[in-house]
Amino acid sequence: MKQAVHFGAGNIGRGFIGALFSQSGYHVTFVDIADQIINQLNEEKQYQVKLATDRQESMTIENVSGLNNMTQENEVIEAIKHATYLTTAIGPNILPRIAPLIAKGLAARVKATDDILYVIACENQISATDLLKGYIQEHLDEDTKAHLADKVHFFNSAVDRIVPLQNNQGSLDVLVEPYYEWVVEASESLPNVEGMTIVSDLAPFIERKLFTVNTGHAVIAYLGYLENKTTIDQTLADEKIVAQVQATLDETGSYLIKQYGLDSDEHQHYINKIINRFKNSYLNDVVTRVGRSPLRKLGPNDRLVRPAIEAKKAGLSYNNLAKAIAAALLFDNKEDEEAVKLQSMIKENGVPHVLKEVSGLDENSELTKEVLSSYNALKK
Ligand SMILES: NC(=O)c1ccc[n+]([C@@H]2O[C@H](COP(=O)([O-])OP(=O)(O)OC[C@H]3O[C@@H](n4cnc5c(N)ncnc54)[C@H](O)[C@@H]3O)[C@@H](O)[C@H]2O)c1
Ligand SMILES: O=P(O)(O)OC[C@@H](O)[C@@H](O)[C@H](O)[C@H](O)CO
Domain spanning 2-200: which superfamily? Predict the structure, then answer.
């Protein structure tokens, strides 16, 4: 049986990428630090993926097992030696932490076989696989580095499926939305995985996804949090917030249409479809999940700051994106480590300094001034 090694047995890992591999005839070895999930995968050897609709359809995901990367290094290396695919869905900030073990796996593998290993990071981050490759290379010996081009092929990708926090402590089952899209940038044919789409240029796909789905999601999460809402669909019951999401997506849309020559009617259709996905009440997707890790989301290449900078460069409006950035700066969820750090940074040094440190924005830039003005208005 073909093998896939997938780092991150969380929501996207089990609910999307691992499930597609299993359904395509692969055995999936999940690698994670969560002992309970790993043990359960090894005991139960299957789980259900349930669709968040009124019909509650579900599918059984079989041929799965688990390894703990902290305590089972040798077993993970062995699994990498025999895999066709190595994928991750672990969070962009965690990639540097798993890179040393992947490097050990690659060093063992290139000695053992000439078969190609296909590596794909499935994270909400532009060029995540390139970043992962860079982290891995820091830990490779020269001999293994010399074999990489022949034997280990790296591909960037964009992944889209809303998988909320699971409300089923002690179960491996995962509730997911029915919609999914996995786009991989490759100039060669890859071993078949059902549901994977190959494109020659990922930029329009990942930017369209990140700056529509994730920008829109972030606006709802941060404004919803400020209005004491619990879930994304509840927040969208507020027409003012819906209008704000639409206005923000008009700004990212104008940039995307100009940059990639998209058809504006088709893009509007894409936006409408996404807002309908957000309204799915069966998902029960909490605003604190969608707003999680605000320092990452305020990064220069992420869903808020990058489209604002690009819109400004293109001479387009970015006021609503500035408001979204301001709302993110007000995310003070005490349960979120990055939100706690963000708030203490703002308290110590003020908003312009934080925008410089976290988002790479000049303290006197027009965007910083615009964000500051929205921040003060929202804070009242
Ligand atoms: N959930 C979604 O709707 C969704 C959709 C598209 C993309 N994504 C992206 O997928 C990635 C994962 O998101 P998620 O929602 O599945 O998160 P998650 O928290 O459910 O899963 C992450 C998993 O990584 C594991 N992990 C953390 N640190 C680790 C380490 N050092 N070593 C091994 N395992 C470790 C955790 O135990 C957890 O099981 C993120 O980049 C996210 O942006 C999520
Ligand atoms: O995963 P994050 O923290 O980058 O973003 C939160 C959500 O916007 C995200 O998980 C979406 O649900 C997902 O990207 C939909 O494809």
Answer: NAD(P)-binding Rossmann-like Domain (3.40.50.720)
